[in-house]
Amino acid sequence: MSIPAGTRLGPYEILSALGAGGMGEVYRARDTRLGREVAVKVLPPSVSADADRLRRFEKEAQSASSLNHPNVITVFDIGESNGTSYIAMELVDGRTLREILAEGALPPKRLLGIAAQLADGLARAHGAGIVHRDLKPENVMVRKDGFVKILDFGLAKLTQPDATQTNQSHSPTVTVATEAGVIMGTVGYMSPEQALGKPLDFRSDQFAVGSILYEMATGRRAFARPSAPETLAAIIREEPEPLPIAAPAIPTPLAWFTERCLAKDPEERYASTRDLARDLARLRDGLSESSTSGGAVSAASDAPRSRRWLRWVLAAAAVTAAVAAAAMWRRVEEPPVFRALTFRRGSMGGARFGPDQETVIYAASWQGNPSQLYTTRTDSTESTALQLPSADLLAISTTGKMAVRFQRETGPVVAEVSIAGGTPRDLLEGDVQVDYSPAGDAMVVARDGKLEYPAGKVLYDPGPGKEARDPRFSPDGRSIAFIEQSGTRASIDVVDLAGKARTLSEGWETTTSLAWNPRTSEIWFSAREFASFGVVNLQAVSLSGRHRVVARGPLLLLVQDIARDGRVLLRADDWTETTMGLAPGAAKESDLTWLDDTLAADLSADGQLVLLHEGGVAEGANEAVYLRKTDGSRAVRLGDGHPQALSPDGKWAVIRRGKDLVLLPTGAGESRILATPGLEVGIIRWFPDGKKIYFNAASPGKPTRLYEQDVAGGAPRPIGPVGFVGRAISPDGKFIAGRNGDRKAGLLPLDGSDVRILAGAPEGRILRFDSAGTGLFVGLLQFPPKINRYDIATGRTETWRELAIADPAGLKAVNNIVLTPDGKSYAYTFWRALGRLYVVRGLK
């Protein structure tokens, strides 16, 4: 049956014929709905007319379409038009492996490149419980760029006779003369158990892989005989010529892998096809082509037939050597290779591979300058700035478009611009994240905690108190991975295009980025375990929820992108908090940083002592409280917890430890726990008399409000209106300065009066009252940071002090400022993130 060009099969318009096989004819067609070209396989009438076989075919094709792996052909559609059944699938621009093998044996590098991908895709199918049953070079397509696609999953079953016929055998028919060519092709790659009609499992496909490996290495089939029966007999009883004899140039471990796949007994093959895929990938990535079987075997291959026994002895010795070499190679794996792409000092934003997989686009802020987009190559040490305004990179499409974020006066804006240049076009307003579909320029948008696809249509809403962010499309475009944030904890989730979501891995903290690995179908992400402070490792989770750690390092490993060949674009960041301070009477600031994550929590009224919080790598899972003199003396560790404030006499530090409030002595004495049942406590400060504290807290299901509590004991008591957040108390203890629910600055009288809104009060963090109680010090946590003084009576604001940070490289945020009542001494903390971009080979 031949279908002329222009014929419509459902939404598909036939363009031209591509080929024919035992299961039907294949045509190039255009999908009129999406405007893309596809391959359409038209099933023979004998199949289309058999309802039972057609049902089985549809079930198998549906299973194959669910495999979701870059090395497995994607099935788009199954349909019927005017009595013609068809399958629409991905159109592959390339040749079958059979066409490639017509040119002879393949060199080891190319052989392993194809074999590793073939085994990887097959491992994914076997993991899903699907056995191919008809694996052969005709069913392996190799694109022009070397990418491998396995065809016809599930179709082999259709070529088998019904179980009701003859002797219930599962063996394919081999006696029909008109199909001899096809059947010879199929028979040549059968496993012994398939040839004998025994039950099959994934190990039968491994035998077919072994036959294909043998043919790629030697240029001839392993069990080719003049007729189908003789070929079947050879598969069942005979061994092919040993690979060290037939192809002496191949790496010896490859000979061993092939021999193992071709074992007659399935128990002697691989227990998991994933192990086979790993062996081939490791050999491809790490074993030199010089690891061959040696010259002795080459000499043996020229021996006359009369000394055939010598050839077999030498072959056996070579195979033994191959086994030993493979075992040694397994023990000594090549480590991953990191190649730096950036060399300047500063912080980095997003980074992606370009469509050609060799160009890299990234955002960086070098030497404290605004963030800029740069382009480089994976084999280059030079970067070129793109002629665009300051921006961060969000995504790159397969068509060469970039989604970038600009910071405008009105707020952040997401725009689109070509990699080749041009004027950006604004798309979305607000702090959103986006990613392109691999099929084109359609975007998934993370906005207001929800996922939209397409933009404007909610695909997934995680619900109150949760946020979906950082979406990334799967390589086949059928799923979207994202980070779901709930408070301080995060999970890695995936949602399909129908909106059905599921959680793959949860309980993470500081989850920063994710990317799909097209080789393993895993989602790789950067995160740290909850309360393992400072350590962000590279993690991976499969779609079945299996988690593993990919890499650990002394720096934060932030995955940016993964190329089709498995190379990883990785950022290595060093995040540190630095605390600087001006001691009483000092002429210049000094560095008060103690360990690697030092935050100034409070400063004594005389400026002599600074209360420090340490929560980085040095303290591990602990948060620690330190007290240090501002003259630079050694810090003293007071205990575990998150420090809040020093008492007016300096004898106590009030801290948070888990859900408890704790009074920690700064000298000799015992710590005391303050009961705060059911309250989630935030900011804590002391009353001037040192007998009470006040704090902001929320109880379950209720908004934040202000509480006071006696340190001698007793329950917290609510003060002030709901939503008022207190930041500082006046020297006489009569007023608390803070902001209401509308972010307006005000004074809360502690005599029960209403909050007094402060006219003209500046934006920024209210730090404290001045010593006279007539003004407020307000910190602007910007670059450069600034301390202003607001006069309560007049409403006027004046600059009190600008804090100059000498080295601007990598500055990300000012986290806190503390100062004395007279404003003459202070301490402040800033966060610096220094990053370098790497392309990494060999991460598994």
What does this structure look like?
By secondary structure, the chain is an alpha+beta fold. The chain has 4 domains: 1-91, Phosphorylase Kinase, domain 1, CATH 3.30.200.20; 96-331, Transferase(Phosphotransferase), domain 1 (Orthogonal Bundle); 337-575 and 835-841, 6 Propeller (Neuraminidase), CATH 2.120.10.30; 584-834, 6 Propeller (Neuraminidase), CATH 2.120.10. 17% of the residues lie in helices and 39% in strands. The protein is built from 13 helices and 54 strands. The protein has a 7-stranded antiparallel beta sheet, with no helix packed on it. A hairpin with a 4-residue loop joins strand 8 (140-143) and strand 9. The radius of gyration is 34 Å and the shape is elongated.
* Count of the domains: 4
Low-confidence stretches: 155-185, 288-332
**Overall geometry:** elongated
Q: Report the total helices.
A: 13
State the fourth-level CATH superfamily of the largest domain: TolB, C-terminal domain
Helix content: 10-25%
What is the name of the CATH architecture of the largest domain? Answer: 6 Propeller
Q: The CATH topology of the largest domain, please?
A: Neuraminidase
The largest sheet has its strands arranged as 23-24-25-26-27-28-29
Percent strand equals 35-45%
- Compute the average pLDDT: 86
**In terms of structural class, how would the helical and strand content be classed?**
alpha+beta
Q: How many β-strand runs?
A: 54
Radius of gyration: 34 Å
Mind describing the biggest β-sheet?
Answer: 7 strands, antiparallel
Distance between the termini: 47 Å
Indicate the CATH class of the largest domain: Mainly Beta
